[in-house]
Structure formats: structure tokens, C-alpha cells
Amino acid sequence: MPVETDSIDYVMEKASGPHFSGLRIDGLLSSPPASSTSSPAHRSSSAGSAFAEAAVPTQPFVIGVCGGTASGKTTVCDMIIQQLHDHRVVLVNQDSFYRGLTPDELLRVHEYNFDHPDAFDTEQLLDCLEKLKSGLPYQVPIYDFKSHQRCSSSFRQVNASDVIILEGILVFHDQRVRNLMNMKIFVDTDADVRLARRIRRDTVERGRDINSVLEQYAKFVKPAFDDFVLPSKKYADVIIPRGGDNHVAIDLIVQHIQTKLGLHDLCKIYPNVYVIQSTFQIRGMHTLIRDREISKHDFVFYSDRLIRLVVEHGLGHLPFTEKQVVTPTGSVYTGVDFCKKLCGVSIIRSGESMENALRACCKGIKIGKILIHRDGDNGKQLIYEKLPKDISERHVLLLDPVLATGNSANQAIDLLIQKGVPESHIIFLNLISAPEGIHCVCKRFPSLKIVTSEIDIAINDEFRVIPGLGEFGDRYFGTDD
Ligand SMILES: Nc1ncnc2c1ncn2[C@@H]1O[C@H](COP(=O)(O)OP(=O)(O)O)[C@@H](O)[C@H]1O
Ligand SMILES: Nc1ccn([C@@H]2O[C@H](COP(=O)(O)O)[C@@H](O)[C@H]2O)c(=O)n1
Ligand SMILES: [Mg+2]
Q: Which residue numbers delimit the Phosphoribosyltransferase domain (predicted)?
């Protein structure tokens, strides 16, 4: 039977594949899932642990950016990174893998060819890329263009990411390096423009004088460009004329990467799902709370910070009325008034960890509680509820830090609706959501809003979110010892 690629079921089936913080990388799993015939949605409930093992080492998308010196490689990479702000992106510079010069070579530095492939430690670069591709961090050397040496005491720690960008004049030269790339970009800028930029950059930033720059350019840079860089242009998938000035090309590249990564597929399917905009601060806090070695104090501290961000974002979805005030300058400021008919409802016990953040944002807010007993996973049973009497007149912020299967959430939402709360007046706040939970809640309650800070890969056999962070309540309240 032909597959209807525009049907909602087809889209949802596709979107329920392995996610890594809200993205899916088509065809980039390092090894196929054990049960490759079953759809991802089925795998998560039947072949859970095999799926989880296979899905976790999702491979990053590797982009190579090549081009002559001062063509704008670094500038283009910075622009791509900026536009891919929803993803974990790391930049690896081939320059970092320059071999440090020996004392003899230093004495005759003007005779050294920094533009020849041998000037780089390509074995080490390969090692770095392979580690990053397999999800491991790497200590990248720090190279100094003034002393022509590597810093012996410090490194730049680069962590595994969704996207790895490797840039450098000779990144397409070695076939083994090329083979690791999912996309190859060549930045094509006129030689005279490049020379002008190079003179300015090397005199301003690299401690050179004009004569030495021109001499090095004629003796090594230009010949090596003709011999090694230009011939490697044929490997490029995309050629960008005019480098960073070419906004159309950069937009297209970013769109392609986003399509490959399945950026926020779930947010496209369910317009009421909001993932707070990721920053390195947020990634950093997630890294800490997901680390099983973190102290209880730090777990609570960073969870609280993240919860506060989710709560603030959630409050932004409440209705408002216009309000005018007079400022101390006597002028009128037209602003908005907060929604007053509001309450929180925490799903006991871990939802209670979100109450303080809600109280800190909304002075005197009423908070109700719901306890759902977990008997296996399907036998969810409501066993306690204490809700404000006038809850039907309020907007409800439902609190639970982890959305896994969605069964508890659905029970809680059912109860709120029974109590007369309109579905569209409920905002479900959590830190981590599994795609299965999002499908489960959003299919049933399409007008409810979900605000989360990251979407994880999947749930496993034991209905735990992968990679997740374990039992949130136990870690937060210190009952996991
Ligand atoms: N489109 C541009 N317009 C003006 N200056 C640019 C442009 N792109 C890059 N530059 C400047 O040219 C120099 C080299 O650019 P860079 O991106 O570092 O090139 P590469 O990494 O290819 O050597 C830098 O000083 C940068 O600020
Ligand atoms: N000690 C060094 C090392 C390298 N170079 C030059 O740097 C160029 C590569 O960097 P880009 O940012 O321009 O791609 C390369 O052309 C080398 O000549 C150097 O001058 N000194
Ligand atoms: Mg550069």
C-alpha cells in the first residue's frame, strides 16, 4: 500500500524516532536499532532497551568548511552557529592541529611552509573527530600564531554535540577526514580580497609586518592554495561565493542542516508545544542535572534555575489585559496587566519541586496537588487531590518536571477538565519531555500547551526517559541514597 506522506499519522510516526534534545538525525544512527523492522513508535514500547541502547549514540552532523586563507571560513562558521542556536554546535579549527615548531624550525620560521598538509597533525585531528563523533569530549590543543607553538599547559575542552563544524584551509585534503563529513562547504572569495584581509588580519592580530606577510604569501600561501586548496574544491557539496556577505547561501545551508536534524519536528506537529530557546547556559545546566555524579545540593540548585526559566516562559503564555501607568517623568507607559485568575497544580511528588519557582514568580499563588499512584505503567490510579474550589475559573499551570509516557499527565489533565477547567486554560510545565509523552498528551488534548526545556530521545522498556536524569523526585528531595 502506498504511504501517504502527508497524513498526520505518517508525520507523527516519523517524528517519534530517536530525538536528541528535540532533534532527529535521519540516517545518522551509528548502528541500526535492534528491531529495525518495527517503527520507532513501536520500538519504544516493545523493544525498549534494545532501542534505547541503539538510539543513544546518535551521531552528530559533521560539516567541513574549506577555502583559501582569509576567505571568510571562520566568519561563515560563526554565522551558521548563530543561526543554529537551537542546537548544540561546536567549532573545531584545523589551525588548532598545527604542529608546534621545533627550536631549529623556529630559527628559520620564514622558510617554514604553514600551508602544506604536513604542517598539520592530521592523525590527531582524525582522533579528535572520531571521539566527538562517538559522543566523547576532546581536549583540543590551543595554537598560538605569534609563537608558532601549542600552549603546553591548557586545552580547549570540546564536548560532543549535535553538529560539529570543522574549518580550515586543508580540511578537504585528506580523504579520511573528508569521509567523516556529512556536508562540505567551500568558501570562494577572490584572491585579491583575501590577500587584503590577510594583510590586515596578520598585522593586527598575528603580530606580523606587511613585508613578511607578502613574502610568505608569494612563497608559500599562494602556491599551496593552487596545489592543495583549489583542487579540493571539487569535493564541496556547496560553494559559497563572497563568504559571509552571502546571506542567501548561509540561510539555505542553515535550512538544510535544520531539515537534516529534524529541528523541533514535534513543535511543528503540535503548535502548542514550546521548547524554551536553548543557550549555552541552559545546556550547561542540563549537563549538570543529568550528571549522575553531581551533588544533591548542585542538583537542586541547577534544577531550580531551570525550573524558574520554564515557569517564566509558561507565564508568558497567559492572557493579559492592557494597562497604562504614569512613570516618574510624568509620561504614560502603556503596558500589560498580569492574568490574576491563576493557580498551580503539582503532580505529587516531583511536581512539588516546581512550586517554589512558581511562588517566587507569582506572589501568593494558590497551588493544588494531585497524587497519582503508579501501578506498573498502565494501571495509573488517582488517589488524592486537593484543588482550589474555584479552579474552573482559573488558568492552571500543571507542574511535573519529567513528561515520560504521558499517562500520569493525562490522568491529571482529565481530572482538571472534570473540575471544569477548559483544556485551553491548562499549561503543562516540565523540564524534560519524551516524544512519546508529547504525542500521548497532545493527541488527546490538542489545545493544552506544553512548555519544556528539552525534548529527549525516547522512553525505554522501564518507561524511563533516555538519556533523562533518573528519578527526579528522589534526586531533588534526597531520597535516592
Ligand atoms: N564579508 C566580509 N567583509 C569584510 N571583512 C570580512 C568578511 N569576512 C571576513 N572578513 C574579515 O577578514 C578576515 C578573515 O576572515 P576569516 O573569517 O577569519 O577568514 P578565514 O577563517 O577563512 O581565514 C577577518 O579579519 C574577518 O573579520
Ligand atoms: N604559525 C602560523 C600558522 C599558520 N599561518 C597561516 O595561517 C593560515 C591559515 O589560517 P586561516 O585562518 O587564514 O585559514 C595559513 O595560510 C598559514 O599561512 C601562519 O601564518 N603562521
Ligand atoms: Mg579562520
A: 278-479
Placement of cell 475559573 in the chain: 393
Give me the helices (H) in 180-279, please.
191-204, 210-216, 222-224, 247-261, 265-269
Take atom 10 of ligand 1 and give the residue whose Cα is closest.
72
> What number is the ipTM of this complex?
0.97
Burial state string for 210-228 with b = 16 or more CB within 10 A and e = fewer than 16: eeebeebbeebbbebbeeb
Distance 81 CA to ligand 2 centre (A): 22
Give the Å distances, CA to CA, from 119 to 112, 113, 243: 9, 7, 25
| Mutational test site, ligand 2, from 65, 66, 69, 170, max ligand atoms within 8 Å of CB | 69
Cell of 24: 532527529
Give the separation between CA 353 and CA 401, rounded to whole angstroms. 8
At 97, list the grid cell.
Answer: 592541529
CB distance 71 to ligand 1 below 6 Å: yes
Digit-by-digit pLDDT tens for the chain (481 residues) are 333 433 333 333 333 322 223 223 333 322 222 222 222 222 222 222 222 333 333 578 899 999 999 999 999 999 988 887 656 788 999 999 999 999 999 999 999 999 999 999 999 999 999 999 988 999 999 999 999 999 988 999 998 888 899 999 999 999 999 999 999 999 999 999 999 999 999 999 999 999 999 999 999 999 999 999 999 999 999 999 999 999 999 988 888 887 777 655 678 788 899 999 888 789 889 999 999 999 999 999 999 999 999 999 999 999 988 999 999 999 999 999 988 899 999 999 899 999 999 999 999 999 999 998 766 555 567 778 999 999 999 999 999 999 999 999 999 999 999 999 999 999 999 999 998 999 999 999 999 999 999 988 788 888 999 889 999 999 999 987 6
Distances (CA, A) of 82 to 22, 110, 188, 250: 18, 37, 21, 11
pTM of the complete model: 0.57
CB of 73 sitting under 6 A from ligand 1: yes
